Amino acid sequence: MVLNAILGLVMFGIALELRKEDFTALIKNAKSSVAGLTAHFILLPLLTFALVKLLQPPPAVGLGMILVGACPGGNMSNMFTHMAKGNTALAVGLTSVSHVLAVFLTPFNFSLYGSLDAGTASLLKEIHLSFFEVGQTIVIVVLIPLAIGMWLAYAKPAFSAKLSVWMKRFSLLAFGFFLIAAFVSNIPAFTHSLHTIFPLVVVHNALALTTGYGFAYLLGLPKNDRKTIAFETGVQNSGLGLILIFNFFNGMSGMAIVAACWGVWHLVTGGTLAWLWGRSSVHALTANDNR
Question: Is the pLDDT of residue 29 over 50?
Answer without folding.
Answer: yes
